Amino acid sequence: MKAFVTGATGFIGANVVRVLLERGFSVRVLVRRSSDRRNIEGLPIEVVEGDLRDFTSVKRGMAGCGVVFHVGALYSFWVRPRRLVYEVNVDGTRHVLRAAAESGVEAVVYTSSVAALGLGTRERPATEETPVDPRHIVSDYKRSKYLAQQVAIEFARRKGFPVYIVNPSYPVGPHDIKPTPTGQLILDFLRRKVPAYMDTGMNVVAVEDVALGHLLVLERGKPGEPYILGGDNLTMREFLGVLAELTGIPAPRVRIPYAVALPMAYLNAWYCRVFGGMPRMTPDTVRMARHYMFYDPRKAVEELGFPRTPAREALGRAVKWFRETGMAKGG
Q1: What is the pLDDT of residue 331?
Q2: Residue 55 and residue 100 in contact, taking contact as beta carbons nearer than 8 Å
Q3: Which position among 73, 169, 222, 306 has the lowest Cβ density within 10 Å, counted as fewest Cβ atoms?
């Protein structure tokens, strides 16, 4: 069967493509003309140029494909102009699903995010059923992913189209060339640029497990239902402690209070807005850090057979890949 993949040049998408090839799929990918294509160089795949914001190019690209993996998204907490994140994540998802429905595609696997789900607590991690509190949708990225998931659910439930939804947590591992915010944290640690930390937490998952989860949901999942593809819940102190054990680099001991971090984030964002550049932290990311972003992937484990690589092993692979590619030496 031929699979059509969006976002193949990105972190999760590049790993999804590799799993598809291992499983015997022929693969066609949609790539923007300006995209960095290092993640797919040398792979036996068909490349077509297009843009998620352009319905015509999306539909033309998936012609003749039996299944679609819509992995493409704009994953950033600093996007200018701000509307771009909605055009790519929300409108782009609608374009892919509409094109798939009109083209007779058998099924679509949509890569959502835990950002589209409700927040739990340190003691009670969130599940797929945790209600979404509008007050916790504090960034354009989170809002766009929430809205895009509602589009996917609408196609699956109201229009009867087979859309399978996966919600990865915070993946780490190979092919994070951009890198993602979590990958940037690992790189900053390797470059000894993490002098302090905030009291927060995240769910760390191996990107290879996430990629495999895309096939498992297609084989065993239920259309229109979200599945958290997650791993181990770690506090930030634990996260940095594991990196310290893996690398021999001392973990920071200074914890930044929220009341200090938020003004620093506003200053950092103002500086980047005026002089250019990407802020290390924004007011939105600091507000998010007030919560423990812990998730329970039990549904995916029990219904899909989703694997759970230990966070230490997943972080070890990420560190190894960043070092082998030379990214850890960058500025």
Answers
A1: 53
A2: no
A3: 222
